[in-house]
Amino acid sequence: MRFAHVIPSGAAEPRLAVIRDDEAIIVEGLFPGAPRFLEELIAGGDELLARVRDAEGDGLPRHPVAEVRFASAVLSPPVILAIGLNYAAHSSELGLKTDSTPTVFVLWPNSLTGHDATTVWPRSLSEAIDYEAELGVIIGTPAKDVAPEDALGHVWGYTVVNDITARDIQYSEAQWSRCKSFDGFTPTGPYVVTADEIPDPQDLHIWTVLDGHTLQDASTAQMVRSVATLISQVSRSATLLPGTLISTGSPGGAGYSRDPQVFLRDRSTVTVGIDGIGALTTHCRILD
Question: Residue 128 pLDDT > 90, yes or no?
Answer without folding.
Answer: yes
